Amino acid sequence: RKEVEQDPGPFNVPEGATVAFNCTYSNSASQSFFWYRQDCRKEPKLLMSVYSSGNEDGRFTAQLNRASQYISLLIRDSKLSDSATYLCVVNIAGEGQGFSFIFGKGTRLLVKP
Amino acid sequence: EAGVAQSPRYKIIEKRQSVAFWCNPISGHATLYWYQQILGQGPKLLIQFQNNGVVDDSQLPKDRFSAERLKGVDSTLKIQPAKLEDSAVYLCASKPGQSSYNEQFFGPGTRLTVL
Fold first, then answer.
1. Of A34, B48, B49, B105, which alpha carbon lies 20 to 30 A from B6's?
2. DSSP state, A69?
3. Is B106 within 8 Å of A45 when comparing Cβ atoms?
């Protein structure tokens, strides 16, 4: 089983739609969770961290379910500018001092007029 | 605040040649990462430095890849000799401190094509 799994999509949605992505992770010792956004031929950028209690940032809501080992991202009122690849990222404590970021393959979102 | 700098932005080489990439992280960021991102995939961690020490290089193909961060600031990643399957974008990222909750900031990447 892969460490971090995402549906690659693409998700094709009209403007104004609500869309949700899920991501599952295999390591129960995972410490922290993030959603990154990556535009075509650009570097990934942090969209939001995912907290145990769930968190919201404008039109974006992230939730964590530790028991089932998945995180989700909900985008409300989709905009054309939301078109991008959304990367699920899980942080796992390494053997040494640091933490390793494990990325999923990403879910591609296309918002159409 | 200046971001993570990488150079070159693009590199085309033939297989069996050598190549080196350079990264200058955000000032004061102790942790530095090198990732490989193959088209259609998420970034894959190659090596992680904490200051000038290696924290995790378990996924670095050590027979051909090497990396260093001698003074705990800039870093170089080298491939020698390159293979066709090394064609990818090589991303450098940095973050402050050791907390797992710190955001990591990515550079623009170096796009490597091996012919």
1. A34
2. T
3. yes
